[in-house]
Amino acid sequence: MCLQEMSGGTAERKMVTCTVKPAIHLQIGEAKSDTAQSGVSVVDVMLPFGKTINIQEITFKNYYTASVTVRLLRKKPGHEAMAKWCTALRNLVLMENPHTEVGSQDYCSISRSKMEVDPDHVTCVRLILRQPSSNWLTFSLDDVQLYPHTEMDPEKEVADWLSDLTLVDQHLDIEGLPDPQMVSSSIQQMWALTQVMQSDQTMASIGRFDVDGSYDIDLISLT
């Protein structure tokens, strides 16, 4: 995935110390007099001797490279046998049209999830660059960086989550809200007043022609 700007999360992570070798351009022809650019070059990213890495992300800035293939030299842990090369990603397009400048100088990121194999126990990363267009004299990748993959401890993850909840509870903004005790007191007073009003209401039923406990003959005769 190519980005116009690198994400803040990548900038906050610690990159791995590595050595980016100068690009080797493949030539066509045997004699120096008839060699020509093939449009393919190879860049090796070396880790310190004896070190391996579980890769989370590879980042770089493109410089007129049309596509890139990522190969990894992986070593099985606990085995003294020679490490083996494998292809993690094949022909990732960096420029949709190699003859135009669109995407030619974008910042790019290749995440672990985009790779076809698990990029673990890696001792070397080989980037195979391709540029079929003759419009550009040179092509390369600049500022190549490797970022390690780390597994989160489940117990630590839960502890961090509980800690975040505690911090949210401690920093809960209650400014502008009424005092809970005052609200409770007001509700109790309203309830007591309601009870008094209900007890004062008369339960006697007033009939249609009932006047002081007796019937008015005139009222009855008028109906």
From TrEMBL:
It comes from the Eukaryota. One of its GO terms (cellular component) is nucleoplasm. PANTHER family: NICOLIN 1, NICOLIN-1. This is Nicolin 1. It comes from Cynoglossus semilaevis (Tongue sole). The lineage of its organism: Eukaryota, Metazoa, Chordata, Craniata, Vertebrata.
